[in-house]
Amino acid sequence: MPLRTRDAAFAGVFGQNLARCRNRLGISQEDLGFLAGLHRTAVGQLERGERVARTDTLVRLCGSLGVRPDALLLGLNWRPTRIEGGALEIEGIEQDESSEPAEAKRARKQRRKEPEDKTADSSEGQR
Prior knowledge:
56% helix, mainly alpha
């Protein structure tokens, strides 16, 4: 299954960071896979941005490369916004709402239309 646009952009930057750190150490994908307990094809997929690393994989890679997680996450930032949601920033690329799933758009619009909850006022009157 192909990665969503946002995930593919994230995976691409992560993969570039991974390849840079591995090359600085002067080891092959196969060597890194051995050190991290991963198959060399998994390392290649991560470097090419074909998959996103899980947290445990991130920790294994960092330990094997002798780097902190921020070395592999360089250029990946989250910019929080108001209640409506946030935006993933990847080296200056902002993900707009057009890549947002249709269900999320509908839910966000519905939240904006709903009147404020009056239950707090009615419970105070009963006391």
